[in-house]
Amino acid sequence: FPSGNETFEKLGAIGTLSNLLIYLTTVFNLSNIKAATIISVFNGTANFGTLLGAYICDTFLGRYNTLAAASLASFLGLLLIQLTAAIPGLHPPSCGKSSDAATCKQPTGGQMSFLLTGFALMIIGAGGIRPCNLAFGVDQFNPNTESGRRGINSFFNWYFFTRGVQRMISVTLIVYIQANVSWSIGLAIPAILMLISCALFFGGTKMYVIVKASGSPVTSLIQVFVVSIKKRNLKYLDSNSLFNYIPKKSINKPLPHTDQFNWLDRAAILTPADKINSEDGSPENPWNLCSLQQVEEAKCVVRVLPIWVSGIIYYLAIAQQGTYAIFQANQADRRMGNTKFQVPAATYGVFLMLSLTAFIPVYDRVLVPFLRRLTGKEGGITILQRLGVGVLISVLSMLVSGVVEEQRRRIALTRPTGEISSMSAFWLVPQFVLAGLAEVFGAVGQVEFYYKQFPENMRSVAGALNYCGIAAGSYLSTALIQLVHRTTEGAPTGNWLPEDLNKGRLDYYYYLVGGLGVLNFGYFLWCSSGYRYKKAKDEVVQPEVKGSA
């Protein structure tokens, strides 16, 4: 039941995102720039808003209450947007055949307010569902048992499997109904599905393991950094001299002392000026003294951040398959065999989702058990090794994209048929398949990595961190496109990224992104070589072979 919330929320918020752009321009008569701005702000805010949602969840509401409120907000947001299509008074009159937004009647302030309220509610829903949903699912497993740990590993894989199925339904069935049948019906489907999701979620309430909020973990992190700076001049002796205290109600596992980032250890140095509460042994002023447990939890977060940075470049490569790969398809022969039927350019993204959903069961049920017998590791390979494979495949997808584009352009120029190359668009399938495989290893691996390496009370923040990486990769893609466009506009080779791809060198751009991916892979290996996995005091973890991640 918990995994259904995000699946249905994304059916409305992400699966129809490209079609919402068309909706704003055709039904609300907005210009391309205004519509693109609204969608960009919505997408970026929804992803970065997960940080605020995670903070509220971990500090005040807990995951169940946050999911409950966010699910209702998502449903109401989808409902309001659907009403703008169903009720004539909530959108401006149709422009008819005119495509010039300047000559069409623009929406009134009330109509725009109603529409933007729907978007705002969807942002609130996404901010609560996305960071908490996966963490809430993980809460249902007992990590202290072998079956529980294996259940968590499989849960991550099957979670992404359901997301892949959802994305395929979104870009095929729902998009088709919205574009060819009726906007009112097409926008009603996600709202109805979200309502079903709410019913399923609330119906399973009595079965859930519900973990209550335990205070702000972010405040605890800040305290460690502040106190370590305050005590930067104190002499550090050894770990035995450090103050340690673990609250009785803490859900975090006790962590042993590690010798990385020793400058943070100073936050736990007990001085004569530090006062301890006699009742429970906690420090009277946590802004002057932190516990060793707090320090080690902060180290867990610091260790993860360099790996997270490498994920931004990974998502940069994946983002290209949702933008310029579609433009490639648009300027290729999209006919199905010898028939006159043309596959819509945006539909080719289905091959990425097919690759993702088809390989996840193979990975989970075949590859992992096989590798487990070879390596003796519970997941077959370590999480960082899985991430590394994902980064490599993302680089390979960029190289294949460049080679295919080079051939598409050559055929378009040597066998001119207008702006459309006579090369079949199905030659783009390999790069989409590779991008899907990259997500099986990279995207799924990142989520698993964040959830397992963050302290238990920061799992919602871990979920938010993944979405922030996706948003950062998208923003970096936009910035890189603008930089390349402006830099190459007056170059001897010509603009790499013009409107007509046949006049540009998109293949060079793909090779540039691939080159950044190679550098990123080297950076990832460097970060991984010194990484130490989080382990509890009573937990035995198989040591890593240096350099193998």
TrEMBL record:
Intracellular or extracellular location(s): Membrane
Pfam families cross-referenced by the UniProt entry: PTR2 (PF00854)
Transmembrane region(s): 37-56, 68-91, 112-136, 156-176, 183-203, 343-363, 383-404, 425-444, 508-527
First-listed, main subcellular location of the protein, grouped into a coarse class: membrane
Gene Ontology cellular-component annotations: membrane
Membrane topology qualifier: Multi-pass membrane protein
Keyword field: Membrane, Transmembrane, Transmembrane helix
GO molecular function, one term: transmembrane transporter activity
Family: Belongs to the major facilitator superfamily. Proton-dependent oligopeptide transporter (POT/PTR) (TC 2.A.17) family.
PANTHER family assigned: OLIGOPEPTIDE TRANSPORTER-RELATED (PTHR11654)
Name of the featured protein: Nitrate transporter
Organism in which the protein naturally occurs: Linum tenue
